[in-house]
What does this fold into?
Amino acid sequence: MILEPIMPKLLSVRRIPNAPEAMLRAYGADPDRHSSLGLITCDQDDSLYVALDEATKHASVDVVFAHSFYAGAAHASGALSGEILGVLAGADPEEIDAGLTALRRCIEHDACFYNADTKGQIAVFPHVIASLGHYLSEQAGLPVGASMAYLVAPPMEGAMGLDAALKAADVSVAKIFPPPSATNYAAAWLSGSQTACEAAAEAFAEAVVHVALFPFGE
It folds into this structure.
């Protein structure tokens, strides 16, 4: 099975070196520890969630704000809005820059959705994080450094994919996100060894493709 990648696009990346205290608090930062912000918008929310987590592995930054926009990138509020706004906070601009560098690298070379059908109408995110950073580990309730399968698909495909993933590998459920999400997708975070997470992600993707090919079963 070879899936065609849908590469995410960063739509805007800006830095605020000395953010006002009221703004720091509004976006979830702690003025006692944070003074600088890095703001990012992207056309793929889940890819950016993974990239934000990656930033915490390479810089002393915290993910203080990360929210998907309703209805997805196709219905964005503006040309630079995309599907999500993420905000990094740090003690100084240099840490923000280091975090943004790691984030860009992840977006360009790692996390992405894939086409699950030949028409490009069904997308799947069968991503494995070999070692969680501080952000997603806290969100998932898993230890820093743990492996996690980050699985996303449309509602029907996601349900069938999750069933396949849980039956195919020795993984446990960290969280399940039934539809509708902000973007009307379904998602799950599964934990286990890296090998088990990869097997779960592969089974998930295969099931999504199968539903795309046979929406009423074989």
The first helix runs from residue 21 to 26.
